[in-house]
Amino acid sequence: MPNKNGSVYGLSILSPIIDDAGATPSHDLQIRDYLASLPNGEESPFAQAPGTHMARLVVMDDVIFVGAPAIEEHLRSKYLVFESNCDGDLDSYLRGLAAAVPQHLDAIWSHCVGYPGAANAQSFVNYMKACQLETTFYFAAVNNKSVSETLRALQTQRAVADFITNHQGMKPAKLQGEFAKFVTKLKSAPLPKAGSMGPQRAIKIGGRDE
């Protein structure tokens, strides 16, 4: 089904950027500058929005002509492209965005044609849905698991890999005891924060006692 993969929603939005020759710098450059200043990982504003698996923002200047037999075409304006994979239904997700990070939404989309602002949640939802395209191909692989389930799975995967690395060569009897303690600690470990499971991050679940 387009836009849906089980319980995960694939959102694709193209918002036309204001073309104003008198704007200095231009609206597309102001968007680029703001996006470049945003933090990644758990400090990302989109990590603060509930249910976000991933979010991607990019300014599209034009479409690329790839040669015959394609026909050369051009966009009438530049576009802000927003892609997100999220939990739940679209309206709830967009309302969550408007409630969680309105200042960032306004700073970005205020440079787009017809943007009403995030203060009125329903107007914001209507605008974003008017700019929506049907999603039939997901930017990132999703597996029909919620954000919390995915974070827990990543936490477990990394913790087990670290345990294996740190306990190589241990005698079987002691290894069995260490693993039992590890499992207990893993079960009681807090859920990682959204955005905290990037490739550079590791979650420590206990240590090696010898």
Strand content: 5-15%
* Backbone shape: elongated
If you average the pLDDT, what whole number results? 83
Largest sheet: 5 strands, antiparallel
Number of strands: 5
Explain what you see.
Helices cover 39% and strands 15% of the residues. The protein has two domains: 130 residues, Alpha-Beta Plaits; 66 residues, no CATH class. A hairpin with a 2-residue loop joins strand 1 and strand 2. With 210 residues, it is an alpha+beta fold.
Briefly, what is this?
This protein is of the alpha+beta class and 210 residues long.
Feature tags:
elongated; alpha+beta; 39% helix; 5 strands; single chain; 2 domains; disordered C terminus; 15% strand; Alpha-Beta Plaits; five-stranded antiparallel β-sheet; 210 residues
What topology emerges from the helices and strands here?
Layout: E1 4-5, E2 8-16, H1 27-37, H2 45-48, E3 52-60, E4 79-87, H3 90-100, H4 102-109, H5 121-130, E5 132-133, H6 147-166, H7 172-188
Antiparallel strand pairs: 1-2, 2-4, 2-5, 3-4
